[in-house]
Design a protein that fits this description.
The protein contains 8 helices and 8 strands, in the order E-H-E-E-H-E-E-H-E-H-H-E-H-E-H-H. By secondary structure, it is an alpha/beta fold. It has one domain: 3-Layer(aba) Sandwich (Rossmann fold). A 6-stranded parallel beta sheet has the order 4-2-1-6-7-8, sandwiched between helices. The longest helix has 13 residues. The radius of gyration is 17 Å and the shape is globular. Bound molecules: adenosine-5'-triphosphate and magnesium ion.
């Protein structure tokens, strides 16, 4: 391993919109794992969500940039939104591995997304591309026992589960609030509140996709 090998967090998400739950998760993992940087990666078309059910990628990208701009250790990658087609985690990690061949990657995921891990495409491959950090999320159990059968010959630290401050915030709830004209202040960064208003996002029922994923 080179002396200048960096430890990079990868925070994938739809970020429709990005909220303080995402930011706290990234910040906590950065601290606990001594990460040099956390790269936020807004999905293109997420494989878990129906086509047309998410806001335009460019809006989600810009909200992610706005939310992370003040943190010198946070950055945003366009790798998923610039790749045509449905985003799969294996593609994200493969592309980032190609960009940062010498660095160590830590894929950060909430308890709900971790629970879906076995349905991810090429999950055997994703475990070879990155380590996984599962973070607690209110309303979801944080456990990885169901993965043990697939992890037996892999090092113990391939998945680490950590408790983080509980923020019961979801993008689905933020969208529902915006649709109903209720506040999203303090759930998302101020600049994101203003961006949602400026672009008139989530004001039509068809813009408010179902919860989950
Ligand atoms: P949606 O309701 O549209 O699914 P979301 O709030 O779940 O949105 P995503 O963009 O789907 O946000 O999530 C990206 C990643 O962030 C996932 O790994 C998810 O588990 C994690 N995450 C989202 N909200 C929280 C939270 N409040 N606490 C911890 N992790 C979270
Ligand atoms: Mg989600």
């Amino acid at each position: 391993m080179r002396a200048d090998t960096r430890r990079l967090g990868v925070m994938g998400g739809t970020f429709d919109p990005i909220h303080h739950g995402h930011l706290v998760a990234a910040s906590e993992v950065a601290d606990r794992f001594a990460l040099d940087e956390v790269i936020f990666v807004p999905t293109g078309q997420p494989w878990q969500k129906a086509a047309g059910a998410v806001s335009p990628a460019e809006d989600r990208y810009l909200m992610t940039v706005i939310a992370t701009a003040s943190n010198p250790r946070f950055s945003v990658s366009r790798v998923d939104i610039d790749r045509p087609g449905i985003t799969r985690t294996a593609d994200t990690l493969r592309d980032l591995r190609a960009t940062y061949p010498e660095d160590e990657l830590f894929f950060i995921t909430g308890a709900d997304a971790l629970a879906n891990i076995l349905s991810w495409q090429s999950w055997e491959e994703i475990f070879d591309l990155a380590k996984f950090v599962g973070v607690s999320r209110p309303g979801y159990d944080l456990h990885a026992e169901h993965l043990s059968a697939h992890l037996d010959d892999r090092p113990d630290d391939i998945i680490t589960l950590i408790e983080i401050p509980a923020l019961a915030i979801s993008s689905s709830d933020c969208r529902a609030r915006a649709l109903e004209g209720r506040p999203v202040w303090y759930l998302v960064p101020d600049g994101v509140v203003q961006y949602i208003a400026k672009r008139d996002l989530y004001r039509r029922a068809t813009d408010a996709p179902v919860a989950g994923a």
